[in-house]
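User: Can you predict the 3D structure for this chain?
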Amino acid sequence: ISSDDGFQICAESIEDAWKSLTDKVQEARSNARLKQLSFAGVNGLRMLGILHDAVVFLIEQLSGAKHCRNYKFRFHKPEEANEPPLNPHGSARAEVHLRKSAFDMFNFLASKHRQPPEYNPNDEEEEEVQLKSARRATSMDLPMPMRFRHLKKTSKEAVGVYRSPIHGRGLFCKRNIDAGEMVIEYAGNVIRSIQTDKREKYYDSKGIGCYMFRIDDSEVVDATMHGNAARFINHSCEPNCYSRVINIDGQKHIVIFAMRKIYRGEELTYDYKFPIEDASNKLPCNCGAKKCRKFLN
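Assistant: Here is the predicted structure, written as structure tokens:
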């Protein structure tokens, strides 16, 4: 440590050099009969200015600063260059692909970007003239076989699958539907009742939702893999639709009918009519109806 007036101190460390300087200062003040100064909390690094924030900011950017392993960086924290562990398979491409979530083949139907038609019961039917002939084909004025023959075409124009506030996906009305009108057929593979348990276990093992509807004591419609939009219709304790088994050309079909007039944008629901079970097997109901039974079973 040196000054312009020729004062100079040499020492083996910064601390020793500044201690010698402070001792000289105290000695000079004592000779001048001045009050001694307090150097408590003052060290060599602080006196040199190395601990100043601006100086530290610059020093941490010096080349090779990252090699100071024991120093805790304040402003420029070096990136940790931890090498990843060796892959036991030799390459990531050789590993078996594992899904982070369960596979859902209908996940796109519940996308927030697919909005259902706007519900407005006060809106008059503007397109009734254009859809009048199509409506009449499924109305109550025609025989049941004729109504069923036109159902496949008209159901695509009448209903659609969108995100449901009740559960997952739901069936929504795309145009006003009159009371008693055929809405959609619950389509799928017709299987025997004894096969339902086996298929349900298989679907559960694959993480696939099961959609089945009983026709009678011996036959069940399995819509899980070969069904239509009717499989997504949700339960409600105050439904606006009901299901009915009809016989067309000697074959039984499950058809959903409108219980009352259903307006555009309204979700279609019907009562699942599950048998009553004990408290341990109860399924909660989220229909939100005023007379909700709180449980499906």
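Residues 269 and 284 are 16 Å apart (CA to CA). Strands lie at 159-163, 169-173, 182-185, 189-192, 212-214, 219-222, 234-235, 241-248, 251-258, 267-270.
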